Amino acid sequence: MTTKLARAASNSSILYILPPKAGMAQFKGLTATANQLLYLNVICVGVAPVYTTWAVPTTTTLSFLLNCYTGIPQCGVKLTDSVTPLDSAHTDFTQHNTCLADPRYLTWRSFLI
Question: Model-level pTM?
Fold first, then answer.
């Protein structure tokens, strides 16, 4: 599985880690659409240095291992500002209902990068 990164702005050095797509069992075939990114969350809780010699056999390179979790913490408001209701543009609660039906809702997975 490849990790997708998103830049905060075109002139920014800040990178956001996007949630993984697909997976196994109940997570098979899942996506990360623009609407889903309003409530999908990646939380990184740890970082550790990893010295590898397999990447470049003649030198020891320093890499980092990130310990993250991915899931949906709530379906009420957008995670982008934590204020705007998830269905602010809709009156039929389609985004809210889709969020509640997603298998990632309240089910957190370990996500190592």
Answer: 0.75
